[in-house]
Design brief:
The chain is mainly α and about 375 residues long. It has helices at about 1-30, 35-40, 70-150, 155-160, 165-255, 270-285, 290-300, 310-315, 340-355, 360-365, 370-385. Mean pLDDT is about 80; it is low at about 1-50.
Amino acid sequence: MLTLRAHNFFLVALGIALACLVLLFSFVAEQPLFAFADEEENVSLVIAGEEEVADVVTVESLDLPAWAAEDEDIAVFLTTINERANDVKAAEENAAAAEQGVALAQQKVEELQGQIEDMKATVKETEGQLTNQKQKSADALKLQYMLDASGFNLTDFIFSSTTLNDFVRNLEYMDHLQDLNLSEIGRYAEMKAEYEQVQTDLEKKESEAAEEQRVADARLEDSRAKLDEAKAARVQAEEDLAAEVAARAKALEDTGTIDDNVNWDMSKEDFIKEWGDRIDAYLGSAPLGGNGKVFAEAAWDNHIDPRWSPAISCVESGKGRICFLPHNAWGWGQSSWSSWPEAIKAHVAGLAKGYGYSVTLEKAMKYCPPNAQEWYVQCVGEMRLI
């Protein structure tokens, strides 16, 4: 009898162990119902369709002064504005994609919430069953203890049985009773393991749902912050351009136009003498110095403001100190000359033919389009010094 009981205990224990192994492997092998966007689904942050490029900002679209059209410095400002505009466009797309990601995350959270509610219902149901089974297991343990303590053994069955059939029936009854007790005890252990596994799964699902929502919200917050930064950078670039244009306009306003105080009623000799001396005083010891008479005579012959060519030489080359070609102090095309007098006469004649009497902003835009406004202000300033 003792051997049979030990055998039965062994079978029950083996069954419980196998059940636990099955639960363990099923838990390990379980695949998550979803993955974060950057792991499984690889949700793109780019809205479907061809990438849109922000409208190009130009001098015309901003209604800037005409001189700004070819100004290199203004072009740099415009390039920056357009880059910031494209940054804003990209940030808007990312923010829209992040909002879509939040919607997808919310949908997954809702699906998980449904699973969580089902799990909670299962947990609640299992708790009641587990309580009942715990009582049954306790009763079985108590009964089994009483049977063991009563001292029934094989000898008792033999002497208490009047026939062989009675003995077999009594023995089968005791075995059945023992099996029932052990089964109730084993069932409680199985149910407890199942309950604990459901609790673990429930906690996991709740954690996954919270993390999914947290990641999506964080991405949306980050994309919106970057969008705000991009918009602020674009506004700043536009303000910088506006400030630059305003400063240039103020400089133009302060500069005004060059006064035509050249007296053409005097004789040629007097004209050359007066302006030759004034130009020599202006040029001083510069490489072009001492050529005032040449400048004045060329101006008389071509009827242009005698101050214009000397002023340009200062703006373009520091009065002949830095020439990119021999004796070319005016940035005049690709020309070079063998002497200053030859160069002066050619430049003054070219001004008269191609530009007219004296400097204006429009003529500055033609002569030096990359920096016309600044060039004009500088040129007028130098002419007033002569």
